[in-house]
Amino acid sequence: DPLFSAHGRETPLSVLKRVYGYPAFRGRQAEVVSHVVSGGDAVVLFPTGAGKSLCFQVPALCRPGVGVVVSPLIALMRDQVQALKGLGVRAAALNSTLSKDEYVEIRRALDRGELDFLYVTPERTATPGFVEMMQGVEIALFAIDEAHCVSQWGHDFRPEYRELGKLTDLFPGVPRMALTATADPHTRDDIIERLGLENAEVFTTSFDRPNIAYEIVERDQPRQQLLRFLSRHKGSSGIVYCLSRAKVEEIATWLDDQGIRALPYHAGMDRAVRDANQDAFLKEEELCLVATVAFGMGIDKPNVRYVAHLDLPGSVEAYYQETGRAGRDGLPSDVWMAYGMADVIQRGRMIDEGQAADEIKRVERAKLNALLAICETPGCRRQAILKHFGESHAGNCGNCDTCLKPVETWDGLDAAIKALAAIYRTGERFGTGHLIDVLLGNENDKTVRFGHTDMPVFGAGKDVPAKTWQSVFRQLLAAGYVRVDHTAFGALKLEETARAVFKREVDVRFRKDRPTTGKAARGAAS
Ligand code: ADP
Ligand code: ZN
Predict the structure, then answer these.
(1) pTM of the prediction?
(2) Local structure of 479: helix, strand or coil
(3) CA 199: distance to chain centroid?
(4) From the CA of 205, how far away is ligand 1's center (Å)?
(5) Which atom of ligand 1 is nearest to the CA of 52?
(6) Least enclosed by CB within 10 Å: which of 85, 140, 168, 203?
């Protein structure tokens, strides 16, 4: 390869070798880079760890002018600027913590053309101050990182991103790139529309992460289950996600008491402590970071060996994103989740009580159900996850719990009819706990008071244990035969599709429960 192209600029491959010390581009990186170097706009949808940063950094270094990178988090900018400086690249970040002197220095470097990269926050980019600052400065490209933040369909909506649509008019002729690891069709379309990237080339690649082993279990004794999972990972670092700040604190303390080095991380913590915990996680070899989803975006720790979820995320996208933080180095990594009906009810309530428009709430509920269906599938988890992103996979991946230890299924039509009848006969006003009491024929305050003990369905499910009924209700929910009414304290209601079950027009097969006290699938297999 010639070091310099015909017009005298350094070629992308030469920049890759000289600046980063890497011998070759990976996957579709080379295509993206060459498209942008020649002035094209691009939408880059690559999974975490695929190497999106080089997709904008290399072309920025090949083109004349400064590369402007829009990034949502100051911590993330700081890390990237540090990394670039370490490579001998001239980079700076514009943010509110700058002193007057630092600001003046950046302006001077810009005016002299002595800056390769300028990182900015989205809220600053479309301001008159920024436009004025960039007057007469040559811009190599705009890279909009974490571009899914522009979309309300995404899991991390930031209204400031909407302003970035103005960049085309403000800076005509400068190539623009949007990059994200979120690839569902809704988000993708939104990015293209909101950022005015209709003419951009869209680059995607497989979202499969073959080195990640998936495991999803029913929550039973969560702390003991977590401890067993962590015992498979002595000597390595990982993340345990919890939904609430309080739970993060509790679990971190408890793990520490169990002799596992663990630190908490959530947005409500003192800034300095939080940053210190993050730094410890990045540096140490054996540390369990217990965190809310506030932790993770832009974290580049290649050797995260495991990610555990003690609560169900809100969507397949979020689950994929969070689990995707494991194994960026390509080495085998385990992700594990414990979930139960309570999650479904809690998540549903969060959606219902949220501020979003009805249309968005409908999509959010559908997203939650899609994740639930992956939790309840008797098939290959990887296949189910990829299918959600519109990608086909033959199944039998050999690296998820259902493949390593196939789940048995049973003909559940009779049980389904009983469960649905219990919902219907009691007026679609009760949650699973009461419905199971009815099915088992438990005479207690509530069943007596509501006169449910006299119904034919009372005790009709005595032959099946309570735990199995719980799983039946979850699977009916995952299959869309019932829904949870969050305005009525989690009461189950029938969907239109339940009719076909009553009429015995459909096949209903359920997963058989696994003994949750036994060793987890991978532990048993290895
Ligand atoms: P993403 O942003 O897509 O999650 P990063 O840009 O952080 O991924 O890259 C992930 C890791 O892969 C980084 O450590 C990066 O240096 C490395 N990497 C990216 N491209 C290459 C390449 N062509 N050759 C070697 N390593 C690479
Ligand atoms: Zn599989």
Answers:
(1) 0.76
(2) coil
(3) 28
(4) 14
(5) 3
(6) 85
